[in-house]
Amino acid sequence: MVAMQQLLLLFLLLLLHLKALMNNWRNEPESWTGSTDPCTSWVGISCSNGRVTEMRLASMNLQGTLSNAIGQLSALKYLDLSNNQNLGGPLTPNIGNLKQLTTLALNSNNFTGGIPPTLGLLSNLFWLDMSANQLSGQIPVSPGLNQLVNTRHFHFSENQLTGPMSESLFSDKMNLIHVLFDNNQLTGPIPAELGSITTLQILRLDNNKFTGAVPTNISNLVDLNVLNFADNQLHGTMPDLSTLTKLNVVDLSNNSFDPSAIPTWMLTLETLASVAIASGGLHGQIPNRIFTLPRLQQVILSNNAFNGTLDMTGNITQQLQQVNLLNNRIVAANITQSYNRTLVLVGNPVCLDPDFSSSRFCSIQQDSATSYTTSVTHCGSTSCSSDQSLDPANCGCAYPYMGMIFFRSPLFADLRNNEHFQLLEASLSTELGLQPGSVFLSDIHFTSDNYLQVQVRLFPSIGTSFNLSEVTRIGSDLSNQNYKPPQGFGPYYFVADPYVHFAGAADGGKSQVSTGAIAGIAVACGLILIAVTSGAIFSLLQKRRTRELSGRTNPFENNEIGSGSYGKVYKAVLVDGTNVAIKRAEYGSKQGAVEFKNEIELLSRVHHKNLVSLTGFCYEQGEQMLVYEYVSNGTLRQNLQARGIYLDWKKRLRIALGSARGLAYLHELADPPIIHRDVKSTNILLDENFKPKVADFGLSKLVADTEKGHISTQVKGTLGYLDPEYYMTQQLSEKSDVYSFGVVMLEILSGRLPISNGRYIVREFRMAINPNDHDYYGLQGIVDPAIHDAAHTARFRRFVQLAMECVDESASRRPTMNSVVKEIETMLHSEGLSSGSSSTVEFEHVGTASTSHPHSGEVVTAH
Ligand SMILES: *[C@@H]1O[C@H](CO)[C@@H](O)[C@H](O)[C@H]1NC(C)=O
Ligand SMILES: *[C@@H]1O[C@H](CO)[C@@H](O)[C@H](O)[C@H]1NC(C)=O
Ligand SMILES: *[C@@H]1O[C@H](CO)[C@@H](O)[C@H](O)[C@H]1NC(C)=O
Ligand SMILES: *[C@@H]1O[C@H](CO)[C@@H](O)[C@H](O)[C@H]1NC(C)=O
Ligand SMILES: *[C@@H]1O[C@H](CO)[C@@H](O)[C@H](O)[C@H]1NC(C)=O
Ligand SMILES: *[C@@H]1O[C@H](CO)[C@@H](O)[C@H](O)[C@H]1NC(C)=O
Ligand SMILES: *[C@@H]1O[C@H](CO)[C@@H](O)[C@H](O)[C@H]1NC(C)=O
Ligand SMILES: *[C@@H]1O[C@H](CO)[C@@H](O)[C@H](O)[C@H]1NC(C)=O
């Protein structure tokens, strides 16, 4: 009783929830299909107390949609699905159930539809990144994002968000540091309340359709480093930014501000590194002062109406790399001799002056210096094969781990500045645990969305390639923002190239269910009490309460669908609507933890379309349960008996073939081989297409390492199907299953039970067979009337003969399951029917070659 109270629905809820997610995904990591233990063996999954707390699945090439079932993982703190470009579809409102979430990164995918207002419920959220999707509609408010007062990061760049930003989206209760809504289609004014979030450091609203004046409240944002309002339809006076004394990057280009002289803050903010006001309606003389701002790297003032003389004399700041004055009205220029960096004066009257027109400043292409690239000149002339690269640390050739880092809003503009990028190299090698100097940076440039793109090559410390665990570690540190770049680089995202040159054997696919994991899973089983809200499981819970009260009711009884040697079988419906069958061990068949663990481990590796697959399990003291896929059409026995259902000869042949294939797989391809020990018509289930699936295997003795090929064991099985030789000698072998299968074949022929009215089907057939009877082979009184038509064919006779060979008294004279398969295939071919495969025997292994599934269109249910 006490055990029941504690351990009622003890199956692997956690695994089932993850499987519900996976049902909507393709391409999941190999370790997920090779093991039933998510908490210890699945890449990217972390658990605490048997509940999933982290899913770090960035850049995994996952495909599909995000299932509603995500909402069941209510202990989740960290959810990163970023950069799986083929992950899409709408975002489920159930994300709002994940109240523990601190990080939600769904960026760089193909999610569509609106931002669910339920995101506002994520009161612990620190990091929210939805950038680079196809999200549309208005930003939800009350309920919605305005509730996220603890969130520091709003990253919504590069979507298709529309409508005005509600004034109540922002408030002084918020603690945002990054607000990125650039590259959307937002309209209306910029909300003045933004000015009340004084924690803000980066504000990007560029590339939208904002209108109206910039609210004066912006001047309250005294910690702001980046302000980008470019490419909108803003009106009114140019905002006064003079109080923003930490500004590094400002872009107000391509708006419709009132014409004005250069704003004074541009001359006083000594922190400025990059200023852009292209097409800003500016006029008058450009003050010399701007070129002396101590940190200035870039000034873009193209397409304005600056006139007079350009004065670039005196103490021009050393960092200044680029001055763009394209298309202004500058008539003369006095430029210090030593200024050897970029200055564009094309489109100004001064370039029509014959004395000046030959100046390099009158041509766009004056940029000889390129952006930074890691130097390998110390390596001399070493060259590597095309898929390897030179490791700057040791000048050797190796297979680097490569990818692109996109910095969304760096605080600098100068891409030739060694200092920034050498700091980045040093920090990458230190933080990622690589040898100093084993980082190669190249192809550094700003993208059209104004992100800084850097190609990164990272080199292995030992040998010429990384092993899988290293690649996983480094990739996830970069993809999941664990790696913090040096100051000035700001928020980033990482896009990895696939890595294929793994060192040694793959070390990530091995599945191991540890005792610790089982303990963890056992705790997870308790989750169902909270999580399950509908279907049969819920009704079980209700009954449990009844039972606790009455002390007598069996909570499972109304859902029972069968029973086997191991225990009773119940049907249940998971919250996502998936039907499952739960098999609950009876007291006598319970095993110790180690044995149970071993069997689960083995069964979870057995995958064949003609075997019922195990999808979950639960183990706790006093309670053992197994969760299987639900096969809808009942047992072969029920189908043979039900008069309403017509199993014709061809269907029967196909059922025999499929079942034989399942058994042949167990005998010959399962590792170690498995003897079913209880083959019978009630253990062959039929799916909605009458495809057979053999059930109840493996909860029996596995074929141990015996030299004789058989093992001595207590006799087990069902009367009528039992191999007489095994019964007498207690020596079990695969041939015992062959005998039982022969009995099933006789059932298929006759529709009769193996033992009825005191008569044994094997003996009945043996006595009746008459080769001289050309119509019925002597079996007129025995063969099921439903298949009388077939009885005169050679195939029919061969089928009978094959069945009789299987039930031969002597095990050594019985065929193997494999030859049974081949025989039945031949019969089907001569019936002019496809046997379902061009190869003679079809087998599948779990976890291998999932891409080249031999049966397109036929789904292996458990992944
Ligand atoms: C993303 O979705 C759009 C339609 O919404 C589709 O056209 C495009 O092919 C998808 N991209 C990927 C990589 O799946
Ligand atoms: C501007 O900011 C101040 C102080 O942060 C705030 O009290 C005021 O309501 C804001 N004005 C508007 C129109 O939001
Ligand atoms: C401003 O608009 C022009 C022309 O549409 C475009 O080429 C330029 O990139 C824009 N500038 C910025 C800073 O967005
Ligand atoms: C420059 O432009 C301003 C205003 O547009 C004008 O007042 C001034 O006379 C111009 N200066 C020169 C030298 O053309
Ligand atoms: C130029 O700047 C340097 C340091 O920034 C300073 O030491 C020097 O006095 C300045 N010279 C002039 C002429 O302003
Ligand atoms: C250029 O500027 C320098 C320093 O301000 C000044 O001495 C010189 O006369 C100027 N040249 C012209 C042509 O204006
Ligand atoms: C510009 O001149 C400085 C010295 O005044 C020199 O150090 C630097 O390399 C030069 N840069 C380019 C791009 O020529
Ligand atoms: C993978 O490589 C790292 C570093 O070279 C090493 O420490 C680790 O033991 C390797 N792991 C495996 C499973 O080989």
TrEMBL record:
The keyword Plastid does not apply. It is found in: Cell membrane. It is a single-pass membrane protein. Residues 1-22 form the signal peptide. The keyword Lyase does not apply. Its EC number is 2.7.11.1. Residues 555-828 form the Protein kinase domain. It is an enzyme of class 2 (transferase). GO terms for cellular component: plasma membrane. The chain crosses the membrane at residues 517-541. PROSITE patterns: PROTEIN_KINASE_ATP, PROTEIN_KINASE_DOM, PROTEIN_KINASE_ST. It catalyses: L-threonyl-[protein] + ATP = O-phospho-L-threonyl-[protein] + ADP + H(+); L-seryl-[protein] + ATP = O-phospho-L-seryl-[protein] + ADP + H(+). CDD domains: STKc_IRAK (cd14066). ATP binds at K583. Residues 831-863 are annotated as: Disordered. It holds the Pfam family LRR_1. GO terms for molecular function: ATP binding; protein serine/threonine kinase activity. InterPro entries: Kinase-like_dom_sf, Leu-rich_rpt, LRR_dom_sf, LRR_N_plant-typ, Prot_kinase_dom, Protein_kinase_ATP_BS, Ser-Thr/Tyr_kinase_cat_dom, Ser/Thr_kinase_AS. Belongs to the protein kinase superfamily. Ser/Thr protein kinase family. This is non-specific serine/threonine protein kinase. It comes from Miscanthus lutarioriparius.
